[in-house]
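Quick start: read one record
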Amino acid sequence: MSMFLDTAKIKVKAGNGGDGMVAFRREKYVPNGGPWGGDGGRGGNVIFVVDEGLRTLMDFRYNRHFKAQSGEKGMTKGMHGRGAEDLIVHVPQGTTVRDAETGKILTDLIENGQKFIVAHGGRGGRGNIRFATPKNPAPEISENGEPGQERELQLELKILADVGLVGFPSVGKSTLLSVITSAKPKIGAYHFTTIVPNLGMVRTQSGESFAVADLPGLIEGASQGVGLGTQFLRHIERTRVILHVIDMSASEGRNPYEDYLAINKELESYNLRLMERPQIIVANKMDMPNSAENLKTFKKKIAENYDEFDELPQIFPISSLTKQGLSMLLDATAELLDKTPEFLLYDESEMEEEAYYGFDEDAPAFDISRDDDAAWVLSGDKLEKLFVMTNFDREEAVMKFARQLRGMGVDEALRARGAKDGDLVRIGNFEFEFVD
């Protein structure tokens, strides 16, 4: 089983805010002591931090649930509860984070040490010291802590490489990577020797350096799931230059030009934007018989079909085995990288619009539906938040919640829907009778 993991689905839960406290001053020599209950502490955030020492998402294979600590409850003497520490989760460079429910991209983490809050902790509930007024100098009201944000995330790792090697199986991609870098990919005389991406650093004779990724071989129909499919093509999305490696000796019995067209078709089927990347054609295995003749035919067909290409691609004949032509290939690749800009991976429509944790002000404050037992059911983010933060052990808090519902227009909306005196109204598991 491969120890490489480039996708993972996890659940994160930020900490709840601590509950506020109801307390009063009762010292002997303090007349009219008044309220003295403190606020609860803030719940911990869940924060992703990029760690350049990580290479895969393997850490998320067995640990899929991440929960931050809740804040401490408020205390007497007006003391606030302690805020919880944030939960730090380390992820590899190149991790894209999506909301699994909406499919929107939350962030693209590519820089070492980069941080992003994926789930915000709830604020602490207010203690009764916050509710004192001239009309009610000794309130017995406190708030429960705000619930922390909870969401399901889809993680995708797209490795950071400047150059990507693509081509059919057994065209010599892994051998090429092994001779131009210090990488030690598995090399064998059979198809799909490479089953996970390999990464290496190249340093040219002129002193320039760039990262190269060797991807598992593609075959015709990969975009429909044939072979290893396109499950690893996401790693080429960050590259700026593609080295299209072709077996010019046709040792597998295939036509080099048809191979070139077939692989480009699979790249286009996976993501049309991959065709924006400039390509260099690497005519490999030039030490083999018939390679020189096949290269002449290949160049002729490329020239004949020049109109199909925006720009005639560069072709470099090489032999990974004898290291023939490698220095010219690497210099040309470095030169092309210098003038090729970064490609934008995502457009605005794919990104999460909300950059903060909160409620949509334009969304309705509540919804009314009817349950099977004829009870009225109230729902909605704003209403449910008020409900969760209400301390129903205190009568004053219950009355305050009733006033808040009335202020939101819940009573009028229920009457308009036909609610009558004594009808059952339900919020979550909490039930009460409607009083007209």
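The chain has a mean pLDDT of 87.
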